[in-house]
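Lab notebook, page 48
Experiment: co-folding of the full assembly
Goal: obtain a model of how the components sit together before planning crosslinking
Operator: M.T.
Materials (sequences as entered):
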Amino acid sequence: MFHLILFLFFGAICVAGAVNLLVQSHPINSALSLIAVMASLAAEYLLLGAEFVAAVQVIVYAGAIMVLFVITIMLLNAGKEERTKGSRVAILIGVPGVLIGGVLVAWTLLYRSNTQAVPIGALKGDPHDIARLLFHDFLLPFEVTSVLILIAIMGAVVLASRPEAVARGPRKDAE
Amino acid sequence: MSITTFVIISIIKSVAVLGVLLTAVAYSVWLERKVSAHIQNRWGPTRVGPFGLLQPVADGVKFIFKEDLTQPHVYKPIFIAAPIIALVFAITSISVIPFGNWVDIGPWGTYLQITDLNIGLLVVLGITSMGVYGVALAGWSSNNKYSLLGGLRASAQMVSYEVSLGLSLVGVLIITGSLSLRDIVDAQRHLHWNIFLQPVAFFIYLISAYAETNRTPFDLPEAESELVAGYHTEYSAMKFAMFFMAEYANMVTVACLATLLFFGGWLGPVFGPPILQMILPVLWFCLKVFFFMFLYIWVRWTLPRFRYDQLMAFGWKVLLPLAVANIVVTALIVAWRA
Amino acid sequence: MTQFPATAAEPGQNRTGEDRTLVLNMGPQHPSTHGVLRLVLEIDGETIVRLKPEIGFLHTGIEKTCEAKFYQQVVPLTDRIDYLCPLTNNLAYCLAVEKLLGLEIPPKAQWMRVLMNELTRINSHLVWLGTHAMDLGAMTVFLYCFREREDVLRFFEMVSGQRMMTSYFRIGGLALEPPLGFFEKVKKFADRFPGNVDEYEGLLTGNPIFMMRTKGIARLSAEDAIALGAGGPTLRGSGVDIDLRRDAPYTGYENFKFKVPVRTEGDVFARYLCRVEELRESIGMVQQALAGMPEGPIKADAPKVVLPDREKMKTQMEALIYHFKIVTEGFAVPAGEVYQAIESPRGEMGYYIVSDGTAKPYRVHMRGPSFANLQALAKMCEGGLIADVVAAIGSIDIVLGDVDR
Amino acid sequence: MIPLFYYLLLSGILFVCGVLGFLIKRNIITIFMSIELMLNGVNLSFVAFAAQWHALSGQVFVFFVMVVAAAEAAVGLAIIIAVYRTRETLNVDRVNLLKL
Amino acid sequence: MPLDPPITDIEVLKPHPALARLLEWNVSVVQAAKFDRDELTIWIEKEAIREVCAILRDSADCPFNYLCDLTCVDWYPSEPRFEVVYHLLSIPHKERVRLKARVDGSSPAIESVTSVWPSANFYEREVFDLFGVRFTGHPNLERIMMPDDWEGHPLRKDYPVEGYR
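Observation: model returned without errors.
Model output:
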């Protein structure tokens, strides 16, 4: 019961944040609501017993990725979103389509809701076990992603630095 | 233990820890003023109470009664939210810090800790990493160029140094094999303090922690000689006080963490009657934390500050490789021993 | 900081293409502009693209005021120009008028002038050192410096009754005899002071962070320094060996032995070292002045120009008449013009006085060393970072009263 | 005991919100954030299924998703900055030409 | 110490390096010279001032490479009303010389020496601000001390002490 209340509480924050992200016109507000979504998702993970995932969610998602977003918004001084007409097709067909799809999925889930309830903390997301899995069974994907992120870092540096700075090489101090 | 007792004890513990933390914050401000004064041939606060001991109260009253300015050009919701965010995250991170061992109070016994998570260290890191938002948003929402530069600097600095801070702790984790702060302390019994096993990691941690808490020589986000007051240029009264408290609360947290991870936490000689045995560990813990606070203040009033690019270069080109090397060496030794 | 929608902010607003720059207004109220200086910075990220000093916030029209005063009434005005070295200003003015008059100053007055002038240099350099270090984040040095500065100000108070606006040097000599016990106190200070300088240097000179912040920062080559009219330690830090105390001695500086510290690097650290070395040389000169202080009168023997002693005025008719005449109608100065330059702590301080033969100066112009040094700032900073601007401002040691006059 | 489909429902809602944001938002940064929202929704179902089937590999997958998201954010935001530098706008409808 | 009478005979003053260099270059630019109280003053044709400065700066045996000061004196009501005064210093030889150029009051203007010494920039702006003498060829001739919308030039002798009201 207690857990259900907690679930509902954080679930409500999640949904509210997600909706707020859509409604707000200023990107910084959207970013903040996304942070709220992520933080409450971390709480949901805790409820599911995935402690480590929850911590990483906060550190990586809320603490690093979203900081990048916020810095970008600050750096570009992004103002209020201007409402251009844009591609009508996306809105006219996409939005109802998505809504219908969402309703369908929900209906299916509710209709075939014979899945068991998830026992809280039944599966401890213990760092020890996760490490064993990550460094034994999933070693290759792990290494591949590490290469991926290295490439991403290099790509980001090249993309974001100015063209002439790249051509010139690192800035030399006087002499 | 029934759920009611649990809730009651938890609430009592939370309130007690919050009270202790806020007092510690207030008195670290007093300590800073006093120590800096003595470093600089001054007296520091002397008027309010004996040795100026009531100065924090006077400061608090002053902050409350100051006019709370909200400039017309600020982005109001975030301008108000930013100091709250900074303070809340700064205070929350103390929740998993253990102050001492098991204590028995009458029929009940408890750990001197609000909650013991087996990923306690990660929680502290996670929560402190959220503290960036307070600073960044304050800088952005003030709609002031100095604030913006301060906010950008702060967020870049904190994100960068978080990397080396996190990596410096990995060595300790490899040795201990646990993320729980209590386990880490327990592993340091018999003077096997991590400072002896992981000296490099300790210094990386110390330096990164200075940068994380924006203290001299890394206080660039609020470098008053360049950016007036950085991200809190436009803040006044209680909103400013919140940033101020957040800074000192972060200092306390970081000092606690240093004590727990490298200096054996509450471990120390314990003797005497039971009541003394209960108090002594807390005393050792407090003394060690006090030492780190003093170190903070000492460094601040001795060193000049870095330049921004030098700071970033130092973080990425010196601390990060050092931390990685430390991890590799530690891992190799541990593997060789095993 | 958006208080001044000046035209200067306009050119930076070109938000087209690659060079999007931001105009940052540093000052007039900013902790590290050392007064009411406004710097319009055009920055690209944190790099300075253009720097433009805007001055005049302290302009009080002293040059105009001088034209309406008697010669002796100008002395207190000169204190207010460079408020960190009031005695240097007094000295420059008095020397200029004495040159116009052709007055001979007795030796004791000259030696006292050197003594007080060097104490003023110490005072000024201490303020510079403290604020410069504080700009770079080292706050403790500031209070150490002000501790010693307090002693120096006490000496000023002893001789003149004022801590800052001393007006101690008068045309033809000094205002008063130094009080009893003055020399002993100065001696004690002079013996102690080198140890204090070691203390400051201990906090800064070898400090790696301080070196990182100052070495190679805000470079100024010797050619640029000369072309931009920089003076004093700013010039000597760039390797130009000039010191007017040695090269064009005035008020008896030829009797003193001192080294002129010169560094060739031309960066902030070189200027810092020059000034710290000057602190040591100055205290050496103070000691020489104390050791060789001659006896004798402190005022020139020129009753028409120099106010008589109080006692004489009350006992001798002639003295009373001269006193009355000097105070009410001043003294006529032969027509002509002089330019008297002396070495102030900041560089060449020149007083250009034109006399038309009456009791009031026809034109007084002060060549402020800070005014000249400020021009070099843009050259030093462009291409550097914002944080370097702070170091550069500190290193040229400007006083806005001297810039704006 | 919370039924699994509660989690799945929540995850679905988040995902749909992400898609909607992707469709209706015009600010390129917000669109990017919508993608992150979708990823988060998916992560939740991963963790929920992991708990359901007592298989930790679901949680491990979340890590990979996070790593990919981090890489994507780094590169994506760098692209956004580069685009903003040449186009002076963050509106996707004005960034529809390959050439300036 | 009685004052020596000023020497105004150019022939006597010839040995001074600055005057010697100028006479050697072009006799006609030197209007007059005066040696008074150990200081040499040379009056220069105002049209030639920039060239004279350049010549003196680059003079081989005694380069006057440092511009100490640049200011102006208002001799209202006599004409030519203004005297622009340049104080030069030779850093290697520690020699000083004062150059003067007379500018008449109707529309005072003189050539700028910023191309010779960049340091003249502020000084010329100051003279422009306070005396209203224009410097042709100055890169940024605007008010420096007074506000941009100030009326009049305060250091002129006909400027009322209390300002225009």
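Interpretation: The two ends of chain D are 58 Å apart (CA to CA).
Next step: discuss with group before ordering constructs.
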